[in-house]
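for the recovery benchmark. tokens below, seq after
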């Protein structure tokens, strides 16, 4: 409320209009004053703020009650807890009397002086628009986006959808379409005024059937150039499909430069950076001039997705999605990481991001039997995808994720690769005239049989082979294990395994101890504190984050307890081996068994099972000691 009061202090007119909306909702019974009583009901307060939409013909200002806010990590938001979801969208959906206290919010008693005003407590009686409740894949908050292949089908959808919403006392209004014939079938009162509207944040001209990305406005050019204002201006450019990624490249790189300079938020930019910002602004300003037809280098990661449709030996290819990321800058926190990541690693990450983006687009398109083909100009990545040799942990995990969907992978020369455009940066006129960007290489317009068969050049084996591993030979070494006991014995919460008749009983006791510690200590810690502890005690953090809630024990809880107990046994019996590995010193067991410490601190054997098709746990078994008085005997 303090931040809201500061905003209203700067704009008294906004305060008055906002208050009118609140008072109107009170009169209409959408909102009521909350009365304190002795009933023990769940209470939750919703933050709220105004949204201005001057382009709307009716609702130019609305109150957004943010029901997506979570009180803490792992907790459910109100949106996730309530199951249900377009005249002033969902004001007809009532809330049960006993549930209204979870929709409380605060408002000023005296709107004439919000700085010192006390607060009144209100609660919602009906669900307002911004509490987004989903009833279909084509609905988002108060907007419905539907498609049809003919005017007859469109009109049928119009009638059926209105009937469905009428049953819930809702009215679908402000219809827009790229078909004049369809609009003429509707009453004038149901049509939207004008031909330009925002469709999910992107401007749509339904008459010309063109999309437009909003660029920099004249008011943005007059702002004082500070890092805060630069981020604010670039953040206004909403391009969810990545249609103007090569142009946004200039803004993204400039932001990274500001972070490298170490400038604070509100310090004016130096003269050199000020001139560069003016140059970037000129390029971003032209984005709004770009009209898109509607259709269904080192340091930069970029992927581009095209949809290729075939009908009677005719092909149509259109850009439908792209994704751009920049490599993290050289700060003190990531210098060590940057030394470990090579150019080949970045190329592998690009392909991984491409597969993830393809998975996202595939889910959203919902096209059955969609064939996917992925091209890359990285010969090293193609080598890793096709080799049968064991790879390093990082490369192996990426390769497994990439190959999981069964896509086809091919080599494409850099000159034919449109994903290289954002690494160079393009102006709006250049991207507007680029057929390669909007439709991909020309050979995509022909059948698969006629596609070029490029043979990737031989990769630099020195860099590629550095990520492969050779299997180690295991030896019989029962005589080298020391059976002596240490003076200080590490155990789980002081438990003595000799006092339990079965392993199952021991593990269940450990589970109850873990659940107690999780509830009383771990769950009350802040997110930042958990991250700090997790960096030092990786295994405990993983256990507490994966442990089930409630008093009952599940199979996964038993596995976590077993993992913790194995960790304690290894710390007691193989302390010298662990020290040798951490200090990079030689040890007989380390060489003979190929011992390594995994990400959770567990000692594992990396030997001749590497080339098998066994599970990861079976390939790299945990090292244990068979001893008379030890319960875990393997």
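predicted aa per position
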């Amino acid at each position: 409320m303090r931040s809201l009061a500061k905003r209203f202090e700067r704009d008294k007119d906004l305060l008055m209009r906002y208050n009118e909306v609140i008072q109107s909702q009170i009169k209409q019974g959408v909102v009521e004053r909350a009365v304190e009583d002795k009933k023990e009901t769940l209470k939750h307060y919703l933050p709220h703020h105004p949204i201005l939409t001057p382009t709307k013909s009716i609702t130019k200002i609305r109150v957004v009650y943010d029901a997506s806010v979570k009180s803490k990590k792992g907790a459910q938001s109100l949106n996730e807890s309530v199951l249900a979801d377009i005249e002033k969208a969902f004001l007809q959906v009532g809330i049960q009397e006993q549930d209204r206290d979870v929709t409380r919010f605060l408002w000023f008693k005296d709107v004439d002086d919000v700085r010192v005003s006390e607060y009144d407590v209100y609660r919602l009686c009906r669900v307002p628009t911004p509490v987004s409740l989903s009833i279909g894949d084509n609905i988002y908050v108060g907007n419905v986006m539907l498609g049809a292949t003919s005017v007859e089908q469109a009109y049928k959808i119009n009638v059926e959808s209105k009937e469905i919403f009428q049953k819930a006392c809702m009215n679908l209004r402000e219809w827009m379409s790229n078909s004049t014939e369809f609009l003429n079938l509707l009453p004038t009162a149901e049509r939207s005024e004008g031909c330009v509207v925002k469709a999910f944040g992107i401007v749509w001209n339904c008459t010309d059937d063109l999309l437009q990305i909003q660029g920099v406005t004249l008011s943005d050019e007059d702002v004082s150039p500070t890092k805060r204002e630069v981020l604010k201006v670039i953040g206004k450019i909403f391009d969810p499909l990545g249609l103007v990624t090569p142009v946004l490249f200039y803004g993204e790189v400039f932001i990274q430069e500001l972070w490298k300079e170490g400038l604070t938020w509100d310090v004016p930019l130096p003269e050199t950076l000020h001139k560069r910002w003016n140059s970037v602004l000129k390029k971003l300003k032209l984005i709004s001039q770009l009209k898109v037809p509607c259709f269904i280098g080192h340091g930069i990661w970029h992927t581009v997705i095209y949809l290729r449709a075939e009908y009677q030996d005719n092909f149509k290819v259109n850009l439908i999605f792209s994704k751009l990321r920049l490599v993290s800058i050289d700060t003190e926190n990531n210098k060590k990481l940057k030394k470990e990541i090579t150019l080949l690693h970045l190329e592998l990450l690009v392909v991984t991001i491409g597969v993830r983006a393809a998975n996202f687009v595939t889910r959203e398109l919902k096209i059955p039997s969609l064939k996917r083909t992925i091209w890359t100009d990285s010969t090293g990545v193609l080598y890793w995808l096709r080799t049968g040799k064991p790879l390093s942990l990082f490369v192996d995990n990426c390769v497994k994720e990439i190959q999981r969907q069964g896509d086809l992978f091919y080599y494409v020369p850099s000159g034919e690769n449109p994903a290289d455009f954002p690494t160079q940066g393009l102006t709006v006129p250049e991207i507007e005239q680029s057929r390669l960007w909007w439709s991909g290489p020309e050979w995509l317009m022909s059948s698969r049989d006629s596609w070029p068969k490029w043979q990737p050049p031989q990769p630099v084996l020195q860099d590629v082979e550095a990520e492969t591993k050779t299997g180690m030979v295991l030896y019989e070494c029962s005589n080298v294990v020391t059976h002596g006991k240490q003076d200080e014995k590490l155990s789980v919460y002081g438990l003595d395994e000799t006092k339990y008749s079965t392993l199952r009983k021991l593990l269940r006791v450990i589970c109850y101890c873990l659940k107690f510690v999780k509830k009383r200590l771990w769950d009350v810690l802040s997110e930042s504190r958990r991250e700090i502890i997790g960096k030092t005690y990786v295994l405990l953090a993983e256990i507490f984050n994966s442990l089930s809630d409630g008093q009952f024990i599940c199979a996964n809880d038993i596995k976590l307890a077993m993992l913790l107990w194995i960790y304690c046994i290894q710390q007691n019996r193989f302390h010298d081996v662990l020290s040798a590995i951490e200090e990079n010193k030689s040890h007989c067991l380390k060489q003979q068994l190929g011992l390594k410490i995994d990400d959770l601190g567990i000692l594992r054997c990396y030997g001749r099972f590497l080339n098998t098709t066994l599970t990861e746990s079976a390939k790299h078994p945990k090292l244990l000691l068979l001893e008379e008085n030890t319960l875990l005997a393997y």
